[in-house]
Design brief:
Blueprint (H helix, E strand, L loop, with lengths): L7 H25 L3 H22 L5 H21 L3 H6 L6 H7 L2 H15 L2 H9 L1 H22 L4 H5 L1 H9 L1
Helix pairs in contact: 1-2, 2-3, 3-8, 6-8, 6-10, 7-8
């Protein structure tokens, strides 16, 4: 076990990932002249990511804080980050060279399977107890929850053509 809270290097990792994502987004948004409100939404998603990471920092300090942090990563941060991209950019994820990863990450059935398996897996006693007892283990769980949230919200926002083509999968997406 590593202790009750994250070491400085773990915090540096979170800040580095958020900084790289924000810089890549800012460069793309500046080149394509996206609306300023999209910048603000994406920036607030980055801020909420770091605030949620604070809740994962010491899972034993507050069970409520830990649970709220996981829920925030999946249900608050994810749509904010995705809404930072205009519809044309989200639609482009299904085309060209992006198609290689979009076939899997933006498929409604894969999304449903990942969301259900991750939700069940993260709440199994072996995984859940380890995440509570070891602060460093809570970070990967938080990142996986955020990935599942991004996949689920990508299905529900405009630009997801998979739901309109496969309406049965769309029903499962709305059930998430």
């Amino acid at each position: 076990m590593t202790g009750q809270t994250w070491p400085l290097a773990a915090w540096g990792g979170w800040f580095a990932v958020v900084a790289v994502a924000a810089a890549a987004y800012a460069l793309s948004a500046w080149r394509r002249r996206w609306a300023p409100w999209r910048w603000a939404v994406f920036a607030s998603g980055c801020v909420f990511t770091l605030l949620a990471a604070w809740g994962l920092n010491n899972p034993l300090a507050s069970m409520t804080g830990y649970t709220v942090a996981l829920m925030a990563l999946g249900q608050v941060v994810s749509p904010l980050l995705l809404l930072g991209f205009p519809l044309s950019a989200r639609t482009a994820w299904h085309q060209g060279r992006n198609r290689v990863w979009a076939v899997w990450l933006l498929d409604p059935w894969v999304t449903f399977a990942v969301f259900v398996l991750l939700t069940l897996g993260a709440n199994l006693p072996g995984v859940f107890n380890t995440a509570l007892a070891d602060a460093l283990f809570s970070a990967p769980v938080g990142l996986l929850v955020m990935l599942a949230g991004l996949m689920a919200w990508a299905q529900l926002l405009d630009g997801s053509r998979a739901i309109t083509r496969r309406w049965v999968a769309g029903i499962y997406g709305w059930a998430l």
